[in-house]
Amino acid sequence: MTGFRRRLLLFFLLVAPPTLLYAKPTGWEGGGNKYVRKQQPVPHRSPVVLIPGDGGSQLEAKLNKPSSPHYFCDKTTEDYFDLWLNIELLLPYVLDCWVDNMKLLYHKENNTVSNNVGVDIRVPGFGDTETVEWLDVSHASISSYFTNIAEALVKAGYTRGVALRGAPYDFRMSHVSLYCVNPWFGCFFVCFSPFSKPLWFNPHRLNLGLLFIGLLFNLLILFSPDRRDVDFPMFKQLIEETYYKNNNSRVVLVTHSMGGPYGLLFLNNMDQPWKDKFIKSMVTLAGPWGGAAKTLRLYISGDNLGIYVVNPLSLRPEQRSFPSSAWMMPSPLLWDTNEPLVFTPDRNYTIGDYAALFDDLEYEQGWLMRKDVEGLIGDLTPPGVTVHCLHGNKVKTPHQFSYTAKEFPDLQPTVIYGDGDGTVNLNSARGCLRWRDQQKQPVFYKTFEGAEHMKILANQTVIEYIKDVVFSPDVSDL
């Protein structure tokens, strides 16, 4: 071995080992002889609350009825059972039992609604996603709802019940009935917190005075024929809880269909400091900001929702009884008030003729409910948060209805189609664009050609858009 090689070997034996020993390994951190693997930066991930639309929440019922439509209809049940969606209850004849359990009663002396006599209905799963991912507990494919969006977020690292929450509600009502689904427990501990954090974060603040107020208010709720007057306490609490559960990360609301107007109404009832603190943005899918023309057919001759074995007239009593149906009638803010939407041999009906239409239908309750709800978001007050307004277009969408003398009002009309997503008309879906000039927060708008009203929930491009929003830094969205 040459002298050079001998000296080089001696260098590695005497000098190099200490150098290597104390060198900082790649991907590790520390000092001395204590190194730990460096934590990789976790990408920002905003928590998400899913807000469903009309028919987008499971409902359970318990019966103690004095009468029923048929001898084979249950009048009493020992416990709650699945009412919506329960595909088995939509069979011919059995459908009449279901309609009688689902319909609401209107009390015009105080402009309220209640369940049918002897029917108690509750909304299961508040805060979780199960009852908005699947509308039928059997997970039948036809009942898939927020499933694809939820699965995509879970695969991206979300945990159900922590960063991914659901806000089901009684969609029959005319504004977000996110009242206390169990008024003796949920409302007692949740609805009356005056604090910015949930009460279970501040148990020392719970006092007898608060309990007394909560109990008194719950009694009013429990015996009120219409609980819809209790504004959003659980929804507000859910958002705050989700914020704190996720390291004070602001929440993204993801809404579908009527959930968009519900979300808007909720935000219009919150002050700006609260929205600035807790809400990052609202992503609306297929929002009917000015209603939908197809609700007129629902009121006149019923809508079988595309289930061909179901007679639309069988569903009409139930569909007519929902204040939410009146809420989703076309709004004069986004529709031409001189354009006829319903044609009959005797007369045509525009948006300005609702009173006459209900009078000709001999259904005064419909007009009273419409008057009750038309001002809820009638002026489309901007939400005061960043908005991502997404919807489909270039899908045949019912726009006008033409009845012959024989058809009006109990047979199905000839449908005149326009642009939209198959349910929401284009002029209504574009209503969110009004906010661009009315609020300082940005309003992003994107259409998806051919994305049908329900299928937009499984549209991969839409899902990727949502993922981009929730993973974007909470400084400015896309």
UniProtKB/TrEMBL annotation:
Gene3D superfamilies: alpha/beta hydrolase (3.40.50.1820). The keyword Membrane applies. The keyword Chloroplast does not apply. Keywords: Membrane, Signal, Transmembrane, Transmembrane helix. The chain crosses the membrane at residues 176-195, 207-224. GO terms for biological process: lipid metabolic process. InterPro entries: AB_hydrolase_fold, LACT/PDAT_acylTrfase. One of its GO terms (molecular function) is O-acyltransferase activity. Residues 1-23 form the signal peptide. This is Phospholipase A2 group XV-like. It comes from Branchiostoma floridae.
